[in-house]
Amino acid sequence: MYMLTSSTVKLVAPFISKKKKLGRFRDLVSMSVMENQSENKVYFHYNHTDSCNSERWTARESFQFMYERPWQDVVDLYSNVVNARLTLSTLFGNGAQTCIHVDDNSKTLEVSNEREERCGRWERVTFKIIVSYSGGAFDGWQKQPGLNTVQEIVERSLGRFVDEKKAQLLKEKCKPLEGCATVAGRTDKGVSAIQQVCSFYTWRKDVKPCDIKDAINSVAPGKLRVVSVSEVSRAFHPNFSAKWRRYLYIFPLSDQEIEKQSCENEKEVENFSSDENNKEPRNGCVKSISWENVENLIISNDKGLEAANKPTRFSVCRVNQLLRKLEGKLLSYKMFARDTKASRNIGPPTECFMYHARAAEARIPCSDHGEGRKVMCVELVANRFLRKMVRVLVASSIREAAAGAEEDALLKLMGATCRRATAPPAPPDGLCLVDVGYTEFDPQNCLIP
Asked: Which of 7, 85, 207, 227 is spaced 20 to 30 A from 158 at the CA atom?
């Protein structure tokens, strides 16, 4: 063991200080280089090899086309449905299915048979809670610090129903008195839900379903409403027990966009972006553009008016044809997901089985339009959905329909090498979780046949 003398320390000290200064200098240089790289970073668009490559919107153009819409009408509709002032039959007629999920009677019977056998940790009581909430009033479902989330409100309301042992444990850890709610699927900020399913368990025997319902309904009236509360089997899990989820996306159409088209006239479907009296192909439609209509075009900041050659309309019928190709197939939707690694060897699988995928025109109530605002409704039913998968699917199908792509365009995008091949997610305002099913999916029980 060596002993350091005062003279040795004096000799070494200058070298140590120089080394520290050199390290700080390297950090500053690396930070400046990273800042310059981020400022000068070039975002490349995916190079599609099909014949519609020149007609396809860029990410910026697609984003602009999606967001410049009267979304407040859709938000108001979902708010009325959440508060039971309207139903989904408003969109699809009186004969349409409302898709209200009925609890399985076998679960209720199982609960009654278990009551006498429960003991120890299985003595707990599990409740199935179906809630409806307006997406615009919350920052999503998952609880996050400093944000107004649905989970935080629900769990805070359930705090009065936890058992004494758990309440004491939370008090010792200096944590708020809250219950634990497990959900069927987390929704993002702005996404509404008509029948979101969550569960809560407690060891208390005096808790009644009506007490839970009243406690949650009193917290955020007009924004969050409990549809039903029922006691279920102890083996019930909102997420793992679910067999399918149903989402509805409502996309408002502008006054200048296409009227309802018939799938029987394929020429009109293919030439939907041409002028009504212009018989030239889409690439020649720029000749009929006046300066009054320039503001309605999708113009890229990079290519300027060259983007005027791209279509500004799409066919709802074509979107329906693109989506129907996904039905009945177990496919990997990793290219349509966001905020997750595109290529991963661990974690949940990226395969999803699409039971139902349809698009149709409808009208929603609107004060500016006597007959209602015309919208496109997209219904998707699958066993599971990846992060932002529905919104990317909707945006990509609209983009491909506008570009005049083939019917299997969405299937081909699944084999892409980069997620830039798909469109950026559509706005969350149009998305709604309709319901979650715990029995086998019935194709006859659909909003869009």
From this structure: 85
